[in-house]
Amino acid sequence: MGPDAYRTAGIAEALTALGHTVEDIGNLAPAEVTVPAPRNPLVHKLAENVGWTQTLMAAAQDTAKRGMPIFMGGDHALAAGTVAGMAAHAASRNRPFFALWLDAHSDIHTPDTTDSGNLHGTPVGYVTGRAGFDAYPPLPVKVETQNICMIGLRSVDAAEHAVLDDGDVMLVDMRRIDEEGISAPLQTFLDRVAAANGMLHVSLDVDFLDPSIAPAVGTTVPGGATVREGHLVMEMLSDSGLVTSLDLVELNPFLDDRGTTANLMVDLTASLLGRRVFDRPTRSKS
């Protein structure tokens, strides 16, 4: 339902109006796979998630040859496949790969450490090569933790804290944003990507945004980014010219209010693809 909500909100039309050519390859389906029972009995739908990872990893490498892929979906578990596939694509071009994680959560669990059993909390763990992903496709390329920046953090489990405290992921929580603003840490990361001639994947979770403006997500955490902060991030990314792929995830249309969240996510995508404040349509309040 997530991808169809973006289509209904006019994502293709918004990007076409900016002069881009849009190819909609339709909804994909997970590969049929057989996997051993998970060691952690709490894990939900392991085979389905592994199948999606296999499908999306291949789709990312295929579509990236033709342009900038935008992966639309519900569950953030899809990023296991999209990020792994885009990292492989970057390696095939002999360029370093970077990921910007716009999310309330760090998603660096493994199937063994998750206490919710929801694998949308594990994609960063998978792409960075953490142990416990035996059932998943072998990683074509490991994503280096120092090449990941997480912005918007405000809900991180103890097990994730332990990993992040010992690592070198660039972490920007909401307190730091309150103290410094969102542009300074983002620019620091973008400067690193540019200096390395890197390819940048952006994974935008609806819960990066405050639930008062983006209610259509099942993992709401108060205190998220504002509309203005969201657009600033997207316009800075646009100005950088570094973004080569994008995830739009965790949209649950059943939780939306008259398409508010889907429309905002489409507007943010348009900002990333070149729309500026004077180009932005004024929406009717009726």
What can be said about this structure in brief?
The protein has 286 residues and is of the alpha/beta class.
Using brief descriptors, characterize the structure shown.
globular, Arginase, Chain A, 37% helix, 286 residues, single chain, 10 helices
**CATH classification, class level:** Alpha Beta
Largest sheet: 6 strands, parallel
The end-to-end span amounts to 25 Å
Number of strands: 6
CATH topology: Arginase, Chain A
Structural class comes to alpha/beta
Quaternary state of this entry equals single chain
Approximate strand percentage: 5-15%
Mean pLDDT, all residues? 95
Structural summary, described in words:
With 286 residues, the protein is α/β, with parallel strands linked by helices. The chain has one domain (2-279): Arginase, Chain A (3-Layer(aba) Sandwich). The chain contains 10 helices and 6 strands, in the order αααβαβαβαβααβαβα. The chain has helices at residues 2-8, 11-17, 46-63, 79-92, 123-127, 158-165, 174-180, 183-195, 227-240, 260-272, and strands spanning 70-72, 97-102, 148-153, 170-173, 199-205, 243-249. It has a 6-stranded parallel β-sheet, with helices on both faces. α5 (123-127) links the parallel β2 (97-102) and β3. The chain is globular and about 55 Å long. The chain starts with a helix and ends in a 14-residue tail after the last helix. The relative contact order is 0.17. The mean pLDDT is 95.
